[in-house]
Amino acid sequence: MRDAAPTTIYLKDYTPFGFTVDDVHLTFDLSPNATRVTSRITFSPNPDAADHTFFLHGEELKLIRASIDGQPVLPNVTDKGLTCDVPNAPFVWEAEVEVDPAGNTALEGLYMSNGMYCTQCEAEGFRKITYYPDRPDVMSTFTVRINGTEKVMLSNGNPTDQGDGFAEWHDPWPKPAYLFALVAGDLINHPDRFTTKSGKDVELNIWVRPGDEGKCAFGMEALKKSMTWDEDVYGREYDLDVFNIVAVDDFNMGAMENKGLNIFNSSCVLASPETSTDDNFERIEAIIAHEYFHNWTGNRITCRDWFQLCLKEGLTVFRDAQFTADMRSEPVKRIRDVIDLRGRQFPEDNGPLSHPVRPESFVEINNFYTATVYEKGAELIGMLKTLVGDEAYAKALDLYFDRHDGDAATIEDWLQVFADATGRDLSQFKRWYSQAGTPRVAVSEDYSEGIYTLTLKQSTPATPGQDTKQPQVIPVAVGLLGPNGDEVAETRILELTEAEQSFTFDGLAAKPTPSILRGFSAPVILEHDTSSAQRAFLLSHDTDPFNRWDAGRSLARETLLTMITDGAAPSGAYLDGVQAVLRDDTLDPAYRALMLGLPGQSELAAALHDGGTTPDPQAIWSATETLRQAQAQHMQDLLPRLHGEAQVSAPYLPDADQSGRRALGSAALSLITRLDGGALAAAEYAKADNMTLQLSALGCLIRAGKGEAELQAFYDQWKDDRLVIDKWFGLQVSLADPEHTATVAQTLTQHADFNWKNPNRFRAVFGALAMNHAGFHHASGTAYELLAEWLIQLDPVNPQTTARMCSAFQTWRRYDEGCQTLIGAQLDRIAATPQLSRDVTEMITRIRG
Ligand code: PHE
Ligand code: ZN
After folding, report:
1. Averaged over 228-238, what is the pLDDT?
2. What is the largest CA-CA distance in the chain?
């Protein structure tokens, strides 16, 4: 588990494995502390490889015996794997190993969660199950036999046989080991069926712990919708007789796309109106779709090596976003994704952890399942589609599936498909994959004699290991509005390829107002010095829903920044402009709810830092509170009507329509609470009959410093529902007053239900602590200290979840010397911990810079 000198792996060092694997047979004899895994694998020398050293990965395995072609062998075993002399011809390798699932707290490999066996193999967990070439470019069919006493015993592919104490599975599709999965436990299924467009009947199951069977129906509907959508939109059919989903309580990530046997964090699949919020439902629908879509983009076509992770993740995130846009509202989905990108990916791309969408080196691959690889990776797909057009995109994707089905592919393969399908030279576009950092696009305008000229200038700040940047291809969607608000030039895609470039629009009767970067056509930061009058004009007239929203957002940002730096009063242009949009009943309530949102406090800190001011988290918090109060007062008369939107008389449905109405109603309730001290929220809490309304009312009360009784009542009501209790933990920390955030978090860690080894529970408290900007960055430093203490405690138990949480410190260089000294001390303290995992060592080293 520990490395004396962690080694760095480089993309440029890729070489193929010396052998191909023709067939894998695995037998599991299950036992909590001593599971036996017997493997029988046929290897052949790989004619494409230069090096024929026979090295199999293997970690934390007890080797019982090994043989080649039936003859016992004594391999040379280290803590990383084994080597052995092998024939220069096809041979059969057999090995028996012992593993300890019950003792596996890292939740990687074969482990136990609430008495049930399950696996997690991506990225490099299969080597904790048996000796194997654990790399994605080695693909094989798998046959699995499970011997055990569990009622349900599952693996990948199709069931071939089962009886008393055993089950057998065969997966006919060659796959890399990271897609292997096994589940065994006393589970209950929620069954259904699906007929593919070519008429194949598929059995569908969602497997859960007894007691959770009532929370599967929504996930099942989402699965069937995903299957239909992938057929309709991408022409992709499912390819096995069964598709199984299993809910697991202890899981490091959201979910995993194992072939035919997706394993989900229970928080990402279980849903009911009483226990899940509208946002939970939307997220569950998206994750089910995401994992299902991986069957083609990830499984049928996989990655040659882990540097190509964005090949499957960027594309699959892009596909699930398209799906959500189709199922719900396209502009609302786009706005939410951009909020997320700015909130999570931009800080990463502009700090010490900045790395390209396709990294060139890593120490621990688990540290690269990042917002950059996933979300910026998805933005790159969106830009490609914008640049080549929808038809060419569809043609390129067909070619990709045709050409690379069954392959372990690279970004070069992906781009070649687009080049071949469209005749376009994509060499400059490729820089998006290799250059880290968020490009800035500065805008200047000129208008004379009917000709309007837009000059765009791009630059990307230096990032770790990349001092200078080359210009990238940036698709900038632009439309023009005339003085009366009419659109005088429809959306046009400007292709910015040089450092600086001008674009002209002619035949204009008057100087237009530009609407730039419509639909957020590229993941960049736009620098455009315009008056707040111009922004307010766009807020009331822009025909592009994204930019209309973003005009409001930039007005809010601007007023908050001047409130913080100059002590200015909240801007009337902002308050009036937003109020006018909110009054417009023809607009989607979900869209109006988004209009009421403010830029996050961490985003404001980044903007201040970018502009040369050291951010003061307390001042940012106060300004945000002041603006919220001003909004409440300004819209006093309108708020009851907005709140009334949430009063849905029809039975609860987590669809776009109803959830949009509840989102608007809840946003209004939180403003009303600032005026009435919580009277309405308390009444709403008392009558809430779904989790969305219950939680939003509770949140209002906590924020108002009230709600102690409700918090207790909520706990008593839900103490047996672990997913709801996660919310109970998280809400208290995320809404705590900055003065008390660390104390609230610290007190919750003493609670009997604080099972810190469960990643969901740990993240509920510490994820919320890191997200409470002013509370986390309180000048006392107690929050930093608390987080560091718990990261040190969790690391030996679960390095992967610990390492992910270290990113809470990634923005530390933005803040004043006092904060930097305090955080620096905690980073040193973590780094000095004996036996620190490779995962956390890499994160802390990069963050310290
Ligand atoms: N591949 C998973 C997904 O994006 C994420 C994951 C990575 C899950 C590593 C577990 C471990 O769908
Ligand atoms: Zn994925």
Report:
1. 99
2. 89
